[in-house]
Structure formats: C-alpha cells, structure tokens
Amino acid sequence: xxxKKIPEYMEEIVKPYDSRTAMEEASRCLLCxxxxxxxxxxxxxxxxxxxxxxxxxxxxxxxxxxxxxNPLGGVCARVCPYDKLCEQACSRxxxxxxxxIGRLQRFAADQESLFGMKIMEAPAxxxxxxxxxxxxPASLACAAMLxxxxxxxxxxxxxxxxxxxxxxxxIPSRLPNEVVEREVRHVADLGVRFVCHTEIGKDISVxxxxxxxxxxxxxxxxxxxxxxxxxxxxxxxxxxALEFLAEAKTGHAKIGxxxxxxxxxxxxxxxxxxxxxxxxxxxxxxxxxxxEAPANLDEIAFAQSLGVGFCFxxxxxxxxxxxxxxxxxxxGTDGESHITLKxxxxxxxxxxxxxxxxxxxxxxxxKNLILVENGATNLPGVFAGGDITNGGKTVVQAVADGKLxxxxxxxxxxxxx
Length: 417
Hints:
This protein has 17 helices and 15 strands. It is α/β, with parallel strands linked by helices and about 425 residues long. It has three domains: about 5-115, Fumarate Reductase Iron-sulfur Protein, Chain B, domain 2 (Orthogonal Bundle), CATH 1.10.1060; about 130-225 and about 360-415, FAD/NAD(P)-binding domain (3-Layer(bba) Sandwich), CATH 3.50.50.60; about 225-350, FAD/NAD(P)-binding domain. A five-stranded parallel β-sheet has the order 3-2-1-4-15, sandwiched between helices. Strands 6-13-7-8-9 form a five-stranded parallel β-sheet. Strands 10-11-12 form a three-stranded antiparallel β-sheet, with no helix packed on it. The longest helix is centred in the C-terminal third of the chain and has 19 residues, at about 395-415. The chain is globular and about 65 Å long.
C-alpha cells in the first residue's frame, strides 16, 4: 500500500483561531449568570470563566482557568464532544448558533504553549506516595491533581509511551502527536515519574504496589476489542480498530486496498479516515441510522470528504475468505436488503472489553468493570476511574473520573489541599 498520503494523515484537520477570530467569537458570549455551558462540562473546565477572560483579552487568565480545572485541557479542546456537552447547553443555541467553545479552549491552550506559560506547579515538600496504573487520560489527570497537592506519584504503563488512547488510539489529524506529548510533559514537569514497559499482573502486582505506596489508582482502560460472532471473524485481515490505529500511528500498519469498517462511533471514523488517507477504498457499515450514530457529525463529514462510503442500517452477516478476508456480507435491518462488499481488511470498531488480569481482588460488575464509589474500590487505598469503571466513554469523562479519584485519595491519605 502506497504511503503517499501520510502527510495529510499527520496534518490537523481543523485550523486554529488567530487572535482576532478568537476575540470575535468570544465577544458573542452572553455572559450568562447561571452559565449552562460550565454546568455541562464533566471535568469542570468552566467555559464561562475562560471565555470571559478572552473577551477582555486576558489570554493568560483563560489558560489558567482551563489548566487549573483540567490538566488535559489542550487535549480535550480537540477531542471532547463539546457539541453534545457545553456547546449544546450554550444559551446562544436559541438565538443563532452556540459559541465555538472547543475552538476557543484550543486557542487558549495553544497560547499557553506558545508563550511558555507554567500554570500547574507542585510543592517541593512531598507528603505521601501514590501509584497510578496505566498512563491514559484518567491516570494523567489523577497524577496531576495528586502531584499539585504534594504527593509523590509514579505512573506505570505497559506500552513504550504514556498517553494511552491519546497516544495510540486517536488519528493525528484530529489529535496531533505533539499535543499529546505536550500534555504529558506538563504532568511530568510536576515531578510525576513514568515507568513504561511495565505490565500490571505480569511485571508487578496491585498487592505489591499497595505495600509500596499509600494509595493506588487503576486507570488501565479497556484493552480488548469486542469481536463479532459471525463466520469468518477469525480470518487474517480482521483487526480491532484501536489496534489498527495504534499500528498506523507507530508506522507499522498493514492497510488493505479495500477496507470495511464496522461501527458508527468516533473510533470508527478515525479508522475509516486513516485507511482512506493511506489510499484505501473504504466503506463504513453501521447497523443504525446516521442520526443514531454516536460519532461527531464533523468526523463523519470529514470521512465522507475523503471518499469514505457509508452503509447505514446494515448488520454484519459474514466475512468471506479462505485464509484471508476477500469479502464482507451484511443484511439490512429491514429484513430484505443484502450487500456484499469486496474487502481485504475488516476493522472492528464495535467497542472494547476488559482484558485486565486480576487486580488485587477489586469488586467487578457483570461486564468485568471495576465498581467504585467516589473513585474508591472495595479495597482500602485502591481507587479507579476512566473506561475501566464507566465502560468506555469520553476523554473528558476520564479526566473527571481521575480528578474525583484524586480527591478521594487525598482524603484517604490524610487531607485535601
């Protein structure tokens, strides 16, 4: 497969606001007293406050509001479904269109980087030790909050680089690698130590960490792709979407010439766009309607602009081939329609399941998720958050979970600062 389109794959789709455009957009804000946009943010990023700062050209103040509330503010500005959260709650929706909150947050976060602002700081004196398992958004947020409170934090990650889904699972044209590296660096600058190539349950256990640290946070996410119970699902060429995206981001992907992506979420759109940008003829198959697809409409539109085809209201029936994929068959939900698509690769973007080993005896749900209350598990000193507890939601929800767990951990360790 030709890689001639990789530069487009690496280039960010949405262009940033310049100062003039950002100020013009911020000036549209109605300065609501009750600020429904701020109430709609799971991580408490407080759009009303940072937009007010931008209106008065206080860019540093805007950046401080974002970073203080959300340690991953620069990432969330790009991948948060703000059209379904803060922007959907915006009071201007009843007048014309909502404030472009996500793009304003991105502007402020980029200015923070451009001018080298140092907003998050950790005290020199340390009080307590904590470990975070996994280096995804939930653990990064938890570690940042703990470090700022004076806790000595070590993050354990089984892969080569920290970031989790941010590093390995989101297309660079939506979330550039340098943005993720920048966010991780902010956390590392607080004194947080990262230990990579270390797998929990294999290289070290939760019980061992409990002996070494005052508190432990589990933010491992969901690592196993859900599979289809249809003929041909074990053929060569069938791959989970996150595995596919990780291989593409590290330059090791084997991308077919005719690709079928199954699913209707943002991960499916990322996988489809990745395949298309690498030159593959790509089709997305989804069992529900376009209106029911959970993916951001902008992501769907981007995939369509790349020539990706869509087959809505079709469910998978079989994957054909002897050893490798040669075709994909689906049946319409109307009970009458059938399609057969020529394919040499089928990407499954139908969700993730838990592949975690025994995690010290924490209580689980029927779906193997960790049960928590305010971030705390049934084991004293062990906390959890992110996809491993909520089943796989958004990055901003993972940040919220990490923050909540950090507050509970601080209480457990003797006080909140």
